[in-house]
Amino acid sequence: MPxxxxxxxxxxxxxxxxxxxxxxxxxxxxxxxxxxxxxHDALATSYQVVSLELPGTGDSPANTTSQSMxxxxxxxxxxxxxxxxxKITLIGTSFGASVALWQTFAAPEQTxxxxxxxxxxxxxxxxxxxxxxxxxxxxxxxxxxxxxxTPVSQEVFAKEQALADRLGYGVHDAQAESQMGDIHCPTLxxxxxxxxxxxxxxxxxxxEKIPNCNIAIVYDAGHCIIGERPEALINSVTDYAxxxxxxxxxxxxxxxxx
Length: 258
Fold this sequence. Notes:
Blueprint: E1 4-10, E2 13-20, E3 25-29, H1 38-44, E4 48-52, H2 69-83, E5 88-93, H3 95-106, E6 111-117, H4 132-138, H5 143-146, H6 154-167, H7 174-179, E7 187-192, H8 202-209, E8 213-218, H9 225-228, H10 230-243, E9 253-256
Parallel strand pairs: 3-4, 3-5, 5-6, 6-7, 7-8, 8-9
Antiparallel strand pairs: 1-2, 2-4
């Protein structure tokens, strides 16, 4: 069944979300244009999947209220609490990974497992893109893959870039790095081996500073892993979502080849 669009009122925002499947709740914070993918379909076969449209992203109105990543994460945590009282597996991608990290700081009791896909919290290596087309191309290791997907509109790009700039996204988040030791839930951080937007050394920081963090490096993928190596990402994320209880000791690194 297709996801059902719903809405929740939090902090003065009307936040849209899409819900599909049944089971333990999995909440995804996705990039615009990637909220209904094969990964969501795969997760919905076993879980209740909730995909939030963060205020100021996608088709939502401009967000001039949130003044920090911490603010936006607190709003996201309240939205999740209004949707479910159960503990969640939280999956954040790119910008959503930064929010997910801060959400876990803000409401550690809410998250039982954390998955960060292409996070840019540590060691980002790119200046802001000039326009939507440039931003879209930069997410892919192979230009032919970028051509398979439609970039967000320039209007949406400008709105989201203004929010990202105000919240400090795209620069090294030293405060988040200093708090990583406070995350005690099982954590998986997934990186594309050819991601041009982040330092290749950043994966080591997550592994060393988050007590129970495992790393997956997806071969031949850029920042948009779902657009270049979808099966590899699906296998990695769904396996961790199902078996995170068995990852008692972290600090492992896996290279996912074809």
